[in-house]
Amino acid sequence: MRYVSTRNNSKEYNFENVFLKGLADDGGLYVPKSLKKYSTKELSELKNLNFNELSTEIIGQFSSNFISKDKLKSLVKKSYSTFREKEVVKISSAGELKILELFHGPTLAFKDIAMQFIGNLYEYYLSKNDKKINIVVATSGDTGAAAIDAIKGKSNLNIFVLHPNNKISSVQRKIMTTVEEKNVFNIAIDGNFDDCQNIVKQMFSDLEFSKSINMSGVNSINWARIIAQAVYYFYSYFKLGKETISFSVPTGNFGDVFAGYLAKKMGLPIDKLIVATNENDILHRAISKGDYVSKKVKETLSPSMDIQLASNFERLIYYVKNSDSEKTANIMKKVKQNSYQIEKNDLDIIQKDFLSESCNEKETLDIIKKNYEENNIVLDPHTAVGVGAATKLSFNDCIVLSTAHPCKFPNATNNAINKHEKLPDELQHVLDKKENFQVLKNSTEDVKNFIKSKV
Ligand SMILES: *Cc1c(COP(=O)(O)O)cnc(C)c1O
Q: How far is the CA of 308 from the centre of ligand 1 (A)?
């Protein structure tokens, strides 16, 4: 499969570029030149596959020039052997809603599913290439932990993780900062997540710097993450055995929900994808009325979604513009000036596939409380936003992606139901272990210097 950039589709790339670089040199995101579209008959042949087999099938559609099917199969198996659920994910219920539990990996959020796979993909690549790679990633709390767990201790790889200082939950931070492996570096930036993401983007576009350290990115724009996430849409669709289904997806950077859109484009009969946001509601304003103007980031109970500019939205724009990279590049200029309003025609196209809702802090707490009292389940605050969005839109018959284990967000559950969930035994130790991280100013130069001093 060949890939192009959303901002210039005259130049082609292979999976290796796409996976190692994350972002194209022109600042655009990689998208495949063409997509496999499964027929109804082909889909019915996939429906009895287990999670690992389905991962191998879906990911294999995108990576065949890079990795053989057999190798991919063993890599997938290795990636998911660390999960607490044999089938990796689990479907439970909250009243009429189905809950797709994606948090049974080593760091208790859905990001483990893609990241464990990516960690092993790096290892596979480095087994064939004599190189040293430095991974740099910004996190709103969960990506960093998942990436660290996937990369720690692997040879010829370092990982630098930037998180917004004091803006993530302490459990989130401790899972990252108590890791002892020497190839892991945590940096707390005096700023918010968007600042962290900006610093990483600036370092990538400084080609001299990024080439000099062989910099690689694993944030949610990485195409390899998206394809690994598309798998659970297929899996849960097959498990429920309905003709069509809708999904409600707690959304920050638009990565997870874009994976659902990809599954739909590949032929999976998804009706609607509900984009569920917290009070950082730019995506809700965009999808409901075309208003893609960012405001100041608010800190909420669901910090992994405290994001204004959703990087992956660019991919949707590209598809809505019928794969016209020139139009996409022009729109991204407007986004940069914070003056993008989605045209009526484009909005109509978006609304065929997407709906949106946002939940404020009180609603989020109420949903946690109500589900505890009525259904005897404890939802994490991100999942609660997903449940709330589905409920507000009266989508009772849909699958809500449950993106994190509630024990990661004790403040929210304490606040809502006066109780917090225990960490699984294998993570108890992070609570009182010594933490290791460096606080830096919101300055790209400072971060560059720090990284240079470590590599
Ligand atoms: C990252 C994250 C999200 C948002 O996912 P995106 O792909 O950025 O939209 C939602 N919930 C949790 C718990 C997360 O860690």
A: 13
